[in-house]
Amino acid sequence: MTAAARTRTTGKALDLGPAAELVSKEEKHRQPLAPEFVSLEDFSPLEVAYDFGTVRRADIEAGPRSIWRYKQLLPVPSDVEQHASTDPGCTRLIRADNLAKALGVKRIWVKDDTGNPTHSFKDRVVAVALAAAREFGFKVLACPSTGNLANAVAAAAARAGWDSVVLVPKTLEKAKILMSAVYDTSLLAVDGNYDDVNRLATELAGEHEDWAFVNVNVRPYYSEGSKTLAFEVAEQLGWRLPEQIVVPIASGSQLTKVHKGFNELGEVGLVEPSPTKIFGAQATGCSPVATAYKEGQDVVQPVRPDTIARSLAIGAPADGPYVLDTVRQTGGSIEDVTDDEVREGIKLLARTEGIFAETAGGVTVATAKKLIEAGKIDPDAETVLLITGDGLKTLDAVQDGIGPKATVSPSVEAVDEALRQA
Amino acid sequence: MTAAARTRTTGKALDLGPAAELVSKEEKHRQPLAPEFVSLEDFSPLEVAYDFGTVRRADIEAGPRSIWRYKQLLPVPSDVEQHASTDPGCTRLIRADNLAKALGVKRIWVKDDTGNPTHSFKDRVVAVALAAAREFGFKVLACPSTGNLANAVAAAAARAGWDSVVLVPKTLEKAKILMSAVYDTSLLAVDGNYDDVNRLATELAGEHEDWAFVNVNVRPYYSEGSKTLAFEVAEQLGWRLPEQIVVPIASGSQLTKVHKGFNELGEVGLVEPSPTKIFGAQATGCSPVATAYKEGQDVVQPVRPDTIARSLAIGAPADGPYVLDTVRQTGGSIEDVTDDEVREGIKLLARTEGIFAETAGGVTVATAKKLIEAGKIDPDAETVLLITGDGLKTLDAVQDGIGPKATVSPSVEAVDEALRQA
């Protein structure tokens, strides 16, 4: 018996708010809401379809300071904000005039998702996954991960009072293990590489009917959480859509969901529909989508990742083809940048705006720079950059070439001399 | 010529909002607002005095989502929110029912200041210091620090487009240097210990009329930033004061300013005045204020710090006597906890509420536990815990005893077996 079936046999109607059905991305087959992620009709990913009804700005503005203010646009129970959650979201959107000047453009906004509870956008998707998983009757939150997702799952489960299982490759560095293990999750080091860990997760999801693997069996709900980035950007701009946005690409899900979020805001009348060009950012060491884009392909050839931007290092991105569609349809572009450019991107954002991003943020900033220089991003139109994670988690990536300006003896003269030479 | 004199000779009146004068803490001598921190009359610290006028809840609630919503209660220019700033504050106050249950009390609230731009409460005090420093005509933001303060100064200066000078002992670990140096501050490694660095800062503040050392020459303004913790707690509770609050003690400034903040809210009529018992938390390895409290002393004997809670490791806390006054006057208490208890406090908060605090947060949680067990904190009254910094910055402190539950082969059976034994 599936978890969905169990929920239904309790007699309680399934409440996932405005979520109405699942629909397959390829051939648009429809099926009831359930913890399933692939269509058995056309084998394409399943996505949530909605009956939105009336959604008003005033109701959202009067809601909680978290993603739950947008619950009328998410696949979550109507009383979602009543349950203990990490309550992510409502992170800063800052006008980045120093960065804009450095890049020679008119206006840049930085969406700073380092302000989330575990300091990455993964808190958003995990919170939505947990809310849906609770409604489906799951009891354990789980994931395979090497970083941000593990942190977010372990923290969200702790806060909700759930058990969690986090699977990591046993070669993961001690610091990264600590960042998740501190929440007392059942963190298991798996004797294998990340592909082995992922395969194991899919097997376990099939065997344990109480386990919700956030990015496997409840993925259609999980991935909808990324729409909240789009909702917040629009609300923070005064209920309008930006002209251009740069989004980092890992699986590609975030980019497609940001686009979906902008469209839904227009559909329900929360914003005046207007075109947003969507740009994708990859690290050259794992740039299968950028390569397909540049070669004019519709399919994405898998690669073996080799980049410091590990949170983006997915060699076979599930949503790659949909990213290509979205970017082409909106008039955007996809570019990739070297690890040195990533480091420079991190430093540029830090020194201009005081925001220390993880490597994925460096990819976004460096890609924006490259797209501006190539004339693909319009310097006279405004651009939003999504900074999705925190530099404190990828310190090792920037340690070369950053350090004290000088070592001095403890005297005024020594300090003055050092600063003259710096 | 002092910076204050320079501002005044420009003909522009000094605008520090409601701030009216400086007053000495001991004998209440009054003097004009200036970048000075010690009274030449009685050699006690100077503190800001105000003419508040009318302050309305509605104006605050309609203000920005940052500490600037409280500008009518801070020594900052009237147009403070118009200048580029890290815009700290408005961090989460969460109801911590899991933690309350674990501690056997009725209700606990956690003020989670890890959500600030550089993930500690120092962003608050630095933002206020920078705003006042700009008004006084300073051009460079500076500090001696080994951690959170350095991060906050470097980031705030970057965002404001200011130069900054950060002085650290040359023995500081590479990871901690990176966290500040990434903002391209003039970070200087000083050949000496932290006392040498501090002395050098005071000398430099005397020599460089353009340099604002946040915690030296503009300290009276800087320290007022801690009041915003009190303001936010009260507003987030629905405009009322909590019954009990636990505050970590380093210099002791934060504890006294939280008290001052609560009092000012009552004075201007934003809340109904009500008593809040204020409790102080120290690490046993640096507990001069707890020792003085327990011995019934009015003065604090300096100690040589030896604790993992480095952000609290001030052996000669400047505001120690005022902390003793405040705690005794409000009916609170001061307690200290061992490094092992600090680690347990960090883990307890993480596993119950999904918040990963730095060692100072572990001190606060562990002290609360000890005070509850001793019957000093009333289990039937609500308690607020201030969590002032992020665990990602003090990973080394918790690395012992935290790790994977098991190492397993990549099979469902191996996972199940490991979880049965965990």
UniProtKB/TrEMBL annotation, chains A, B:
The modification N6-(pyridoxal phosphate)lysine is found at K122. One of its GO terms (biological process) is L-serine catabolic process. Gene3D superfamilies: 3.40.50.1100. Its EC number is 4.2.3.1. Pfam families: PALP. GO terms for molecular function: L-serine ammonia-lyase activity; threonine deaminase activity; threonine synthase activity. It comes from the Bacteria. Keywords: Lyase, Pyridoxal phosphate. CDD domains: Thr-synth_1 (cd01563). It is an enzyme of class 4 (lyase). Its cofactor is pyridoxal 5'-phosphate. Residues 87-389 form the Tryptophan synthase beta chain-like PALP domain. InterPro entries: Ser/Thr_Dehydratase, Thr_synthase-like, TrpB-like_PALP, TrpB-like_PALP_sf. Belongs to the threonine synthase family. This is Threonine synthase. It comes from Saccharopolyspora montiporae.
